[in-house]
């Protein structure tokens, strides 16, 4: 076969090969991982203009951006809703394209060797050299007649890298390895690594993630209605009407030269206008709404939801949730539309609570955050449902005591009896077994000042059903007698007072001294410089002598059981 024909065929085959077959695999840094990708906002960072030798710079830049991103509200509060991945994309050459044809481009050369390698403080009007590096995404300045408008040109390459590495991305940030000021929004939030780059990237995410408008006047071509820009000034008609009068939210004209006064914004100091500002309440609300739209608080649930269940024994139902910080979620668990638990992430369910036939266990989440005011967001609910098909009726399971059927208790002390794995929705009634006198209701009961061994029992109730009783013995340990013979010895020369317990020494016991408020007076550990619990008998206490009378108290302690006697008062 002709060699030229072979070459042509080879070239044709290479051209027809799928992009994925030609695509390069890059390393992925996982900067934050919260859970399964389908329920979480997947924030993906790509680098443009970073050579193979500059990947450490890219790693530094992507980490710095991530840290900054989660320092800004509302991302700080909703950080658990995000995964963050940085794909280490490699360019042949470093930097970005500068044609310097835009009217605001300042011509000139800049000796970058005189400046720190990262985050040079170049302002908008700094001299920019004309450059045309070969980069993976072809990011360039001078778009739309604005030098600072930096846009990646190789969109198909971006799509290819994302499809190959993280196809289920939610938001993409492209960091361009140029020290000069610039960035853009649109489908890909883009920013250089200028010293204002983090703010630029976050501002641009406002456009691409939350569809926020600029609150500075960018030109008539961008004059469209948005949640934070309107052509009406009517208080009952602006998109942010629910925020008026709160935290500086009002109706403000864009105004100014080249900025028509017939368009209005909600705030005078917002990151959509000034990079150094925080996001205003209206923009923060839109971010929270977008996060909720693009994710789910239910990262994982057990048992899985894709089957109709049948319960034949007590079973645990668990939620793994993405939560705001501080947590503003209100949770309601309901069984067949009857609330059985609130604000907990897991419950136990008893088959004795189910009807024969179809049943539903449902969890509803409402976010009560102050960042939301619009009723369509405030009234939003997230929910999941487990379905059951019960073939027969079951009795309620017998309650199990957490620590078994016997609890040892100090004489005169308190004890708490608790149901192990309490069932959501059941009511537990507690009784003294011999007298059948109810002593409490709930998952546990406190028995105070126990002076004799007694048996108690608990019964679970659900509607017209009740369980078999479960019994527990509170076994009272021997009473520890309080110290009685205490000698007070005064050393006037050293201005000290010695308190000495005269009881016969017994290695099983030691003593705890305390003030009138019950605060322990511990031994001073010279070596560690702190007060510590005594290891020895502690049957002598040395104090500074005072001019007025003083009281201290002492208790005898059984070191084996930690039971204590009543307090003995010492006056000196």
UniProtKB/TrEMBL annotation:
Signal in keyword set: yes
Tagged with keyword Signal: yes
Coiled coil start-end: none
Source domain of life: Bacteria
Family annotation (Pfam families): Peptidase_M64
Keyword terms: Signal
Protein's name in the database: Ig-like domain-containing protein
Residues making up the signal peptide according to the UniProt record: 1-23
């Amino acid at each position: 076969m002709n060699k030229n024909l072979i070459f042509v065929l080879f070239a044709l085959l290479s051209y027809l090969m799928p992009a994925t077959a030609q695509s390069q695999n890059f390393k992925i840094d996982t900067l934050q991982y919260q859970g399964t990708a389908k329920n979480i906002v997947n924030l993906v960072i790509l680098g443009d203009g970073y050579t193979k030798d500059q990947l450490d710079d890219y790693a530094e830049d992507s980490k710095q951006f991530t840290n900054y991103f989660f320092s800004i509200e509302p991302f700080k509060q909703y950080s658990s809703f995000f995964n963050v991945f940085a794909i280490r994309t490699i360019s042949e050459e470093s930097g970005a394209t500068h044609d310097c044809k835009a009217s605001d481009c300042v011509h000139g050369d800049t000796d970058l060797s005189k400046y720190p390698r990262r985050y040079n403080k170049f302002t908008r009007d700094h001299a920019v050299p004309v450059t045309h590096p070969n980069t993976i995404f072809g990011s360039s300045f001078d778009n739309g007649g604005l030098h600072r408008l930096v846009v990646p040109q190789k969109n198909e390459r971006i799509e290819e890298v994302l499809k190959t590495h993280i196809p289920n991305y939610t938001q993409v940030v492209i960091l361009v390895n140029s020290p000069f000021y610039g960035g853009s929004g649109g489908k890909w939030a883009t920013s250089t690594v200028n010293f204002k780059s983090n703010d630029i990237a976050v501002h641009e995410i406002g456009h691409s993630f939350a569809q926020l408008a600029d609150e500075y006047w960018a030109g008539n071509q961008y004059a469209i209605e948005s949640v934070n820009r309107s052509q009406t000034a009517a208080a009952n008609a602006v998109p942010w009407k629910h925020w008026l009068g709160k935290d500086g939210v009002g109706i403000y004209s864009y105004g100014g030269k080249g900025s028509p006064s017939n368009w209005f914004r909600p705030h005078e100091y917002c990151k959509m206008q000034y990079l150094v500002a925080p996001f205003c309440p209206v923009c923060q609300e839109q971010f929270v709404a977008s996060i909720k739209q693009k994710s789910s608080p239910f990262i994982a649930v057990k048992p899985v939801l894709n089957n109709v269940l049948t319960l034949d024994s007590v079973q645990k139902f668990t939620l793994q949730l993405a939560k705001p910080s501080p947590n503003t979620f209100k949770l309601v668990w309901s069984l067949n539309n009857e609330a059985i638990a609130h604000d907990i992430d897991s419950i136990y369910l008893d088959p004795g609570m189910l009807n024969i036939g179809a049943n539903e266990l449902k969890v509803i989440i409402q976010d009560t955050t102050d960042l939301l005011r619009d009723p369509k967001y405030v009234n939003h609910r997230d929910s999941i449902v487990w379905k059951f098909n019960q073939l027969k009726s079951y009795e309620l399971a017998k309650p199990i005591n957490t620590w078994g059927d016997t609890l040892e208790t100090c004489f005169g002390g308190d004890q708490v009896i608790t149901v192990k794995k309490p069932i959501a929705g059941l009511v537990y009634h507690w009784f003294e077994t011999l007298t059948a006198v109810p002593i409490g209701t709930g998952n546990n009961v406190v028995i105070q000042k126990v002076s004799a061994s007694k048996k108690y029992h608990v019964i679970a109730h659900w509607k017209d059903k009740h369980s078999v009783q479960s019994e527990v013995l509170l076994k009272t340990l021997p009473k520890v007698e309080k110290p009685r013979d205490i000698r007070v010895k005064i050393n006037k020369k050293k201005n000290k007072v010695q308190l000495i317990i005269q009881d016969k020494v017994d290695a099983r016991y030691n003593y705890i001294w305390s003030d009138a408020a019950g605060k322990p007076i511990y031994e001073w550990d010279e070596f560690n410089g702190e007060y510590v619990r005594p290891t020895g008998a502690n049957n002598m206490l040395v104090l500074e002598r005072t001019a007025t009378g003083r009281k201290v108290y002492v208790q005898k302690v059984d070191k084996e059981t930690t039971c204590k006697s009543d307090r003995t008062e010492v006056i000196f």
